[in-house]
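User: Earlier you gave me the apo prediction for this protein. Now I'd like the version with pyridoxal-5'-phosphate bound, so I can compare the two side by side. Same sequence as before, with the ligand SMILES added.
Assistant: Got it. Here's the input I'm using:
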Amino acid sequence: MSIMVTKSSMPPLEEYVEEIKPIFESCWLTNMGPVYKKFQHQLKEYLEVPEMSLFVNGHMALEMAIHALGLRREGGEVITTPFTFVSTTHAIVRNDLVPVFCDIKPDDYTMDPEKIEALITDKTVAIIPVHVYGNVCDVEAIETIAKKHDLKVIYDAAHAFGVKYKGTGVGNFGDAAMFSFHATKVFNSVEGGGIVYHDRQYRNRLHDLKNFGIHGKEDAIGVGGNAKLDDFRAAMGICNLRHVDSYIEARRRVFDRYNERLGDEPGIRFGKRQENVTANYAYYPVYIDEELFGKNRDLVYDELADRGIFARKYFYPAVNELSCYKGVYPQKTPVAHDVSAHILTLPIYEKLALEDVDRICDIILG
Ligand SMILES: *Cc1c(COP(=O)(O)O)cnc(C)c1O
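And here is the structure of the complex with pyridoxal-5'-phosphate:
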């Protein structure tokens, strides 16, 4: 049987059936019904965040957060990272803003704060960094820079569900943070996403944007779209949330086994554990240095694939190398390009057996 890079977490079927019973009784399927509200409440408690608005997916949550924070302006620039899923950049561009790519740090692959200030111009409106692989950005340095230049910060925390920094839920940093509950993430509601924010003024704006601008019973006060999370997905989220700590614990065992087997191998660099961070073990990225290891990333990928094991070259190419963005933006990001050429994310999910981890390591080291 083949092994994919991830496998969706599923709650027991009976729990899901139980959770959707009230929906069948009330016939309230969507439009922020009781199950949505229950999910929203539980998420805020779990993530230890003050305010949260739920969306049909993480991408629309980010796109609408950029809009709701009032960042859209002619020629406005947003400093972001090229080492991410393409959604981050699309959300900026679809708001008619210009992405300005800042390079990343070679150790944890998050935005390098030392390279931000050189990119700030009088058109800069915001910084959108990514807690990539669940690694926490240098939130303190980024906050200092943002304050100094009066910029908004929105974190793409799609990879960072449940992660804490110095004991604080990672959603609390920045003006807003986006979580994704996509099927492939550590925590899922099938599809789904949320925006955490602090300033209550954003509550109505986010609500209006995801619900056609409709306010009250008889008026639309703005131009909105439709990006509401429905109550069935909320029910799935409630069930998975009940088990997410055990999902993370099971991932930790896989993560530790990889570290044991690959940790001392010259030529293989895995993301070092960050200090002061409670991790979620969302991904297991390895950086493969051909000169020291003797095989390059693509060969390792192929050797695994030949045996039905599908790792991912995640993120390759970097976003500013994709056809839709290549050559359009002038910033050079050599570290991101180097990492994207050498990185491979290995299978990790809670049901992955440690024997399979050993088999994967045997192939890599063989
Ligand atoms: C998954 C992901 C998104 C988009 O989230 P969806 O819920 O799939 O729309 C955005 N950014 C990053 C870094 C992601 O991994």
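For your comparison, keep in mind: The chain has a mean pLDDT of 97.
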